[in-house]
Amino acid sequence: MRPLKMLAVAAALVVAAGCGTEPGTAHWRKAGPTPRQTFVMIRVPATNQYGSQGIVGTPVEGYIRDAVAAWNAHPDLQVTVTFGDTPGCPGENIGNDKVNCFYVFRVPNSAFSDGVAGRATAYSDGTHLYNGPGPRRPNSARIEVAADWTGQPENSERNAYCHEIGHMWDLGHPTDGSPGPCNGQGVVDADDNAALDKTIDACHSDPAPAPRASTEAYTGSDDCGGVTQPEPAGSGAVKRIVVEDSFATFAAAARSSR
Ligand SMILES: [Zn+2]
């Protein structure tokens, strides 16, 4: 009995160390009907700048739909996904870059450095995420995922879409080296949702008036400890944030599949 018990404790420790997703500090601006709710649009074009790497009608379409459904289980997040070139992200004009929208591209493995299999690009002024400055596509906020997953472990490709979408909520990798958003299996778990809680509830003071002379008014608000604050457009100083992912064993296979 004694050795069994010790084994169980050891296993529990391993599980605890292997989980975790780092909360972020910025969120897509919030809008009604409830103050904390965040609406985000995802566009999955039929074409991209690399040529034909179709998503519509392939298993990848299912991976994206499943990932969106999993993230949407969080009560403060409402994500919609549209497949096809029309419409693109709204606000694809220089006058309005404060739209909650990003693209998903499936790209050739050769679009990345050796071993890199996914990339998430977002824009932030430190408190709010944006779809980015013009010109838009391919510079808009977006995730890019490698097209060829030959020889990779089961669920790797599925996980990549779920994981990169997780980065678009500003969620990050834990310092313990565990997989971060979606746990390496494409599964949104309690750690992901806890990190999302903290990130969406990240309390901040928005500059007023917005330094970009913007008059854009949003109906949403931050509910910071019971104190409601407006969500104005905020700073025009947009910073580009890029996260690259290698995932478990992608390096060797990525090289051999070129
Ligand atoms: Zn990552």
Short description:
Helix 2 crosses helix 3 (156-167). Strand 2, helix 2 (59-72) and strand 3 (77-83) form a beta-alpha-beta unit. This protein has one domain (22-256): Collagenase (Catalytic Domain) (3-Layer(aba) Sandwich).
Instruction: Please identify which CATH superfamily we are dealing with.
Output: Collagenase (Catalytic Domain)
Spatial gap, N to C terminus: 53 Å
Dominant shape = globular
What Rg is obtained from the alpha carbons, in whole angstroms? 19 Å
Helix and strand run? HEEHEEEEEHHEEEH
Q: Which molecules are bound in this entry?
A: zinc ion
* Derived structural class: alpha/beta
Give the total of domains: 1
Q: Uncertain runs with pLDDT below 50, 5 residues or more? A: 1-18, 209-217, 251-258
- The total count of strands amounts to 10
Which percent bin holds the helix content?
A: 10-25%
Mean pLDDT: 77
Which band does the percent of strand residues land in?
15-25%
